[in-house]
Amino acid sequence: MAVTGLIFAAFVLVHMIGNLKVYQGAEHFNAYAVWLRTLLEPLFPYEGVLWALRIVLIVCLVGHVGGAAMLVARARRARGPFRRRRLPMRSFLARTMPVTGVVLLLFVIFHLLDLTTGTRPAASASFEHGTVDTSHAYENLIASFQRPEVALFYILAMVVLGMHLAHGLWTATHDLGATSHRLRAIAVAVSGILAIAIMLGNISIPVAVLLGVVQ
Amino acid sequence: MRLTLKIWRQRSGDDVGGFESYELDGAGAEFTLLEALDKLNDTIVAGGGEPVAFDSDCREGVCGSCGVTVDGVPHGPVANTPSCRQHLRSFPDGGTVTLEPFRSAAYPVVKDLVVDRSALDRVIEAGGFVSIDAGTAPDADSHQASHETVEAALDFAACIGCGACVAACPNGSANLFTGSKLVHLSLLPTTQEERGKRAGAMIGAMEEEFGPCSVYGECVQVCPAGIPLAAIAGLNKEKLRAVLRGKDN
Ligand code: HEM
Ligand code: SF4
Ligand code: FES
């Protein structure tokens, strides 16, 4: 769980930074999308690196979701019929991990249909596929977020991502055996800051589109 | 003061069990929870009834035998305090207090509030000991350890084995308990020879009967010994170390 989760965390961080290129305009953003596909050419074939990353992410997804299912089943069995109830807010993030995880899974499916495969009605009516040397990622993104209900769903999904990440990173700290005071203090700070930064960085995009700042 | 005690009554492990209400009158706010149960039992016995069974020994927070669940919280409302050191002053006069056994699939109920916590002993039996022949007490200088290391080992050795961490955990995990033992033993010079083997054996035994850790942090709220969450990171560190080295020590 810790290793696959940390790979996801690294991915969403890099992905968020990439997303912020939307503020540099269509040309930059689309050029970035093309670059992702031609990365390390001709050493690797067209979309080679992209597919390698996709495969890593798919393997992580299967491991992460499978591990989570096993964990929940083991926990239920070990706890027995008398559950703990009326727990205070301090463990809210921990208790909601399975729920936030499932919401993220649904989000990823919607998100891929929306902006990668361009499958309607998840994708906007004006979705256009890219070619080998062009991309419409920018236009597709704007068109998608100009649908307020979709923008709202992205915003809520990013709040859920922030919650999942904050507790996930803190849990990974324990799984990887960080015992020293200093390291643990750093881990608390990094978990919180990364989760909030990724959440806010991504949320800013649908908000900017809705406000018409990015067109 | 006056309290209504809603107490879990269960004749044996095979019995289904259920709550029964009792009125407790004339108990002082300075009474401990266990003294209140003693007083209630006096009345029950005088009336020809079966007294409420509960565990206790030292009644001063050292033996770890007394844990019950009070209003859904293992040990009781005051954090990091064993049931024998919880006082009636925590409850409003005239209020209702619900008492039930520690809840976990690993703790079968023996009777009323008494549970069988030998699953914890099985974790210790798997490796929570030193198997070298220690003979008579060695010369104090023959085992060198720094003051800080010994203090840290003592902090983690403070666990009294009450099992509240398991009952507090929504996952029924014993990671805090096992972690405290592993960290404690990993720090001392005489226990190094079996460090890797011990981690594998104790964690294996733990995983057979207890749940996984999701870092809810509920355990550290109830632990009467104040074992910190770092014990759980320590458990995973010992596990990783054992797996990566693949050696007994
Ligand atoms: C508001 C936040 C987000 C925005 C604006 C966004 C935007 C995008 C865009 C525009 C693409 C398509 C890029 C291309 O065509 O080259 C994409 C792909 C993708 N995104 Fe996001 N994304 C967001 C959040 C997330 C999150 C939180 C995750 C995962 C938990 C995620 C996972 C993916 C995946 C897996 C792909 C597909 C990569 C591929 O196989 O090509 N995204 N995203
Ligand atoms: S770690 Fe704390 S709560 Fe758990 S058994 Fe030891 S003393 Fe009790
Ligand atoms: S009776 Fe010994 S710790 Fe409570």
Automatic annotation (TrEMBL), chain B:
Keyword Plastid applies: no
Reaction(s) catalysed (UniProt annotation): a quinone + succinate = fumarate + a quinol
Signal sequence bounds: none
Stored Pfam families: Fer2_3 (PF13085), Fer4_7 (PF12838)
Cofactor note: Binds 1 [3Fe-4S] cluster.
Key word 4Fe-4S present: yes
Domain 2Fe-2S ferredoxin-type residue range list: 1-103
Residue span, 4Fe-4S ferredoxin-type domain: 150-179
Name of the protein in its database record: Succinate dehydrogenase iron-sulfur subunit
Species in which this protein is naturally found: Microterricola pindariensis
